[in-house]
Structure formats: C-alpha cells, structure tokens
Amino acid sequence: MSTIESRTTSIRVSGAETALAARGPHFFFVLAALFSAAVLAEWVIAERLGWTAAVPPTMWHAHEMVYGFAAAGLAGIVIAWVPRWARARQVSTSRLTLLLGIWLLGRAAMAVGGLLPPWLPAALDLSFLPGLAALVVVPHIAGRPERTLPLLALLAALWLGNLAMHAEVFGGTFAAAERGARIGIDAYLLLIAIVCGYAIPDATNRYLAARGAKARVRPAWLLDNLAIITLMLYAVSDAIAGTSHATSAAGLTAGIVNAVRLACWRGDRVLTAPAAAILHVGYLWLVVGLLLEGAVPLTNGVADMAAVHALSAGAIGTMLLAAIAHESMVHGGASGRGEAAVLAAYGLVSVAVVLRIAALFVPGAFVELIIASGAVWSLGFLCLLASYVTPILVSFGARRVTD
Fold first, then answer.
1. Phi-psi group of 11: left, alpha or beta (phi > 0 → left; psi -120 to 50 → alpha; rest → beta)
2. Is 162 helix (H, G, I), strand (E, B) or coil?
3. ∠ CA(322), CA(377), CA(258), 5° rounding?
4. Does residue 90 sit within a domain?
C-alpha cells in the first residue's frame, strides 16, 4: 500500500490502483490495436445485419477508423504525455475508467446504430473527445500551456469533424459527412508533422550517437516551418474546397516540401534501427499521400482514394503503431520482449496499405486485394498486441498480489 498525504487528509492507495494508473495509456493502446484488428470484421457483420445507420453506411468504416481506432490511440498518447509535460501525477483511475467507459459505449452504439434512436449513437460518440480534453488536458494547462493549448485546438478540430460525420442525424448531407472524415485525417496529419519535427531527428541522432557516428541531423527551422505551413494550407483547402484543383495544388506543394524535409532527416542511416526507421516510414506515407493528392486531376479521381488511404492507414496508422510500440517498450516495462512481433507488425501494416492502394488500380482484383489488405492489417495489429499485452498483465498481476 502507498500513501498520498495532504494538509488535512491521508489517503491510502492500493498497489493495484497505482498499477492501473501507471498502465492507463496502455489500456487505450490495447483497445485501439484490438479494435483496429477487429473493425473490418465488425463492418461486414454490421452491414449484413443493417445496423450501421448511425452515419451514412459507406462512411461507417471511415468513421470508426478515424474517430474510433485513431481516437483511442490518441487518447493513450495524451494520457501518457500530458502529465509528463506538466511533471504531474498520472491520470487518476476514476478518470481513466470514465474515459474507457465513454469510448466503449460510443463504439457499441456505433456498431448497433440501426437499433437505437439516431441521436443516441451520435451523442455517445461525440462525448469522448470533450471528455478527453476535460479530464486529461485541461487540468494540466498550467504545466505546459505552449503544448496543451495547441492540443486542445486539435481536439476541437477533431470534434467538429466528428460532428460533421454525424451530419444526417442533424439534418446535414453525405458531403458534410465525407468532409468530416477528411477534417479528422488532416488534423492527425498536422499533429504528425509537428511532433515528428522533434521526434524523428531525436530518434535518428540517438541511434547515430549510440553507434559512435559523428554525423547528426541538424534542425532546419525554415524548412520545418514551411513544411507545416504548406500542410496546413492543404488541410484548409481540403476542408473548404474538398477535392479540387486548388486542393491538389496545395497537396502537391506540401508533398514536395515535406519530401525534402524527410530527406534531410537521413532515414538511410537508421535502416538497422526499427524504432527510428518506422518513424521515417510513417512520414514517407504522409509524403506519398500528399503527392497522390497532387496527381488527382491526372487520374479522374482515382488517386484521391489512394491518397486518403496512404494518409490515413499509411501515415496515421503507422505513426500510431510506432507510438504504441514505443510507449510499451520504453515506458511499459516490456523492453526486450516481443521485438520480433513488433517488427512483424511494422512490416505487415505497410504491406496492408500497399495492397489497399493497389486495389484501386487493379479493378480485376479489387475484392481479393481488399480482403487481403484487411487480413494483413488485422494480423499486424494482432502482432502488436502479442508483443506486450502479456508483460503488462503479468506486471499488473504481480503488483496486485503484493498489495
């Protein structure tokens, strides 16, 4: 047992409760990985049974990947990072439990939306991001406002995109729902571009230093800011104009600038360091997606769907995979365990994205490639789960026994 003391009270906290708080982010990581592995099967079942009326049926899968899977992964990252920024205690178990309940209720309601009043799945689903902001981010604003305030802006943008995806419930249109999916994707991409400006050079330099190499990745303030600004212009154009020549031009410009940025980070030097290399791969998918957006006018729109999958499953999926694996291996007590499974997950997710994009350009094998892509994607996240769920459960059980 441990004791938390204040001026007036002394609260005894069990070892099991302390372990739960420490493992808080990992519960969301496990849910994100498990949900990502199962969501395609859930989609097929729900479609067959006619349960997907919570959002337009053709957008249901996109919604669950952007605002279900990715939102859970983001929650795990926020719960892990924000208290560290503020040098504060871990998020309390009561807040973790409440957030987990909100997310699970939202997923359940979205899965059986056709059996519920139309407003109920929307209300449950839309409550998660404000809950994350109120329970985790807002209490830590004073610690690092220069980081927490932009994070609140990101969560607000994601919430507005999610609201747009529930457009039909509120009298909107399918076009608004489609725009909502893209707003969510673009918000995640901006977060990736900002965070990777620190994370990729740092990971690369750490590896080079460990190898005794004198070469280092140097900051490029002008290029970094230009990369973020051009990506932001693309996101604004995508939100306002949707698929258009202006958006394609903005995507092409952002793709070129971010390709130069990625090249300056010298990913060729970390090919033998998976934890660093996967960050370069994730950013490469961002570049590929933006360049595909630039090619949309030349492909009668086919490149647009390819770009969406490169940016969502490729960039966002890979970066979440990398973040989950990093938090597990470095901060989750699973270091040195399950590394082969993590490597398999890294490779399988990118293969799944390649297969999904290939399906758009090989009409004769569309169904087969879609099925293969879904199976490989699910296997990748199951490998990730296998890499660290057991060490976490063993550690949690050990703490509970000693309580």
1. beta
2. helix
3. 50
4. yes
**Pair type for strands 2-5 and 10-13:** antiparallel
54: CB partners within 8 A, 6+ apart: 60, 109, 110, 113, 114, 116, 118, 121, 122, 125, 166, 169
Q: Which residue has the higher pLDDT, 70 or 395?
A: 70
| Other CB atoms within 10 Å distance of the CB of residue 287 | 24
Partners of residue 10 on adjacent β-strands: 5
Q: How many domains does the chain divide into?
A: 1
Position 48 in a domain? yes
**pLDDT value at residue 47:** 62
The 10 Å Cβ neighbour count of residue 252 is 20
What would the two tokens of residue 208 be?
């080079």
Q: What is the pLDDT of residue 397?
A: 52
- Say which residues have a Cβ less than 8 Å from residue 309's Cβ, sequence separation at least 6: 289, 353, 356, 357, 360
DSSP 216: -
In a domain, 63, yes or no: yes
For residues 383-388, average pLDDT: 80
Q: Is residue 327 part of a domain?
A: no
For 107, the domain range is: 24-150
Distance CA 177, CA 2 (A): 49
Q: Smallest Cα–Cα separation from 64: which of 136, 112, 14? A: 112
- ∠ CA 101-326-182, rounded to 5°: 60
The whole-number pLDDT of residue 16 equals 42
276 backbone dihedrals φ, ψ, rounded to 5° = -85, -40
Distance CA 94, CA 129 (A): 17
CA distance linking residue 294 with residue 258, whole number of Å: 13
Q: Sign of the C-alpha dihedral, residues 176, 181, 186, 188?
A: positive
- Contact of 157 with 183, CB cutoff 8 Å: yes
Residue length of the chain? 403
Strand partners of residue 13: 2
Helical H segments across 87-173, by residue range:
93-111, 119-126, 128-132, 145-165
pTM: 0.87
- For residues 177 and 59, the answer to whether their CB atoms sit within 8 Å is yes
Position 143 scores a pLDDT of 76
